[in-house]
Structures are given as structure tokens and as C-alpha cells.
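Bit of a strange request maybe. I'm writing a small parser for C-alpha cell strings and I need a real example to test against, not something I typed by hand. Could someone generate the C-alpha cells for this chain?
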Amino acid sequence: MQKKKITSQFRMPAEFEKHEATILAWPHNPNDWPGKFSPINWVYTEIVKNIVKHERVRLIVKSVDHEKRIKSMLNKAHVDISQIDFLQFDTDRSWMRDSSPSFVKDEKGNVKGVHFLFNGWAKYDNWKKDVFLPEFLTQTINKKLIAAKYKNRHVVLEGGSIDVNGKGTLVTTEECLMDDKIQVRNPGFSKTDYSEVFKKYLGISNVIWLNKGITGDDTHGHVDDLCRFVNPNTLLIVKEDNPKDDNYYNLNENIEILQDIKLENGKKPEIITLPMPSALWFDKMRLPASYANFYITNGSVLVPTFNDGNDRKALGIISEFFPTRKVIGIHATDLVWGLGTLHCLAHEEPA
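Reply from user aminoacidic:
Good idea to test on real output. This should exercise your parser:
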């Protein structure tokens, strides 16, 4: 019997396309930033302040009292709260990149949400509230939500594990999606299975498989710390120049992989390398500090910085690809204690 060909009526826009809003959730779990939870509130204030200058923010808050405290902080920092929609919903955590729905456009240009299952990166137990977030968000913004199912299973996928160019190409890592022993998202899935899922729900015709992500990433290989599209034809990928660093071999291997790949149109992409900051540690744990975890808004690009000699170099490289957007460094030395930074915390809602 001939296998039924899977087609798609959807297209996943790239992050650099126009947004309707940015989705954020104000942090309320001190365990995500052990010993540094207090300054995180002010880092968030800075993030929101820089986003509302260019687009609306849908800000998820835990309760009425939580909202009052947040508004007080935002007002002290002279943040324009008229650009913020405060949405009360009790989440487990604040990592909107992974627990929010993936947004796509149908053939008429209507925005819809795709509900991939979030299960705490197949590692943590506190995700039972977050699993209801896609339904809450899409109902709130009046968008249809489509469950991503394949072979009678609800597919597990985090937004940080993929990046797209908006034209049909997606980049991901084998470490995150293909490992069959550590943090297994979809047991038994092959690359063909993932390609079919990406095609059906995201409109992807071309998948780039890199190998391993950066050292210290407790998601086990998310691509948004590693390699990002900055336009339909250009990928920025982090590179480690120190042969003694744990990232050296894996990152250089990924750069070699990119030398042989092509885009959906058959052309080779432009490959630009970003430096890595020096290693940051918490206790005996390497933290996932990376300049690739930037977030693109309608009028700016927010880039994590780490009081490092490579901060300015990374900002300069990223600036070259966003001449009409202001590239802003956000101090993330405290933020990365939560094992993620700017891109991990934000999720774009396409216009």
C-alpha cells in the first residue's frame, strides 16, 4: 500500500518577521534562580521596558497581588504599561519559548497556534500547570489551537529546540530530538517522523540536523543557544576558539556540518560565527551562557551579555544583520543562573 503523502496548509513565520506581540511570564519560582531571585525582577523590568518600545507585551502574572507588585516595579522604571496586557494565569515556570504554542499562518494569512506537548524537557516534574498554557493563551487572543498529533501521539517539542527561516527550512539538533537515552521527548521517533511532523504542522520542507548543543544546557541540546537564522539566507552559529574548552570540539563539528547543507531553495546559506563568552559556573555546574540566545522584536534585538570581553564583539556581529533594528545588550550574568536567558523566556506572536 502506498504511503499517504503529508502536506501542510501552514507556514511558521521567522522570528525576524513582524510581531503582533511578545509573550512573557513574570517569574515567581525562586528555585529557578537560587540565591539570585530578587535581582531577576529588575532584569525582567529591563527586558519589558525594551520590548514595549516596539510592540505589545502579553505579560502572564500569577495573581492579582502579583500584578500589583509588578506594576509598581514597572512604574518605578518608567515603563509604558499601556503597551502591556496583564494576563492572570498560574504557571509552573517562566520559560515561554518552550511552554507557549508555536504560531503558524494558514493559506489566508490567519495566525493559529500549534500545541506541541510540553513535559518539562523530559527532565523536571513541575510542568503540570504549564501544559494548559497554550489553550489559555490562544483563547485569550482569540486564535484557533491545533494539537500536534502524529501516529496517535501528542508530539513533545519545545520552541527552543527549533529555529526557522520562514521559507521552509528548520534547524535543530540530534542531541535534543534523537537521543534515545537522555531526556527522550518522543520515544522511537526517527528523523523521518520529525520531518513529517514539521511538514504537516509548521510547513517545513527542509530540516538541518546539527549534532550537539552547548555545554551546560540542561535542555540537552536546544538550538537557540547554538545556531539562529537572522534572515532567510543567513545562519549565526557560536564558535569556541579555546581548544581546552569543553565546547571546542562540538561547536566546531557543527560548523563543519553547515558547510555541506543547503536551504529549501537549493542554495547554500551564509554562515557567520559568533564568539562564546568565557565559561560561567554556578557551584560545580557550567551555565549555558551564549550570545545566540538573543530575541528579535519589531524594532530591536535584545542580546544577553555577560561582563565578558566578547560582549562588544558579539553585539557588533549581530548588529550587521539588523540595520533597521537597535541591538541592545541585556546584562544576563544573573539571568543565566536560571539555565536560560532572553530567547528562552520570550515567545513572539506573529502579526
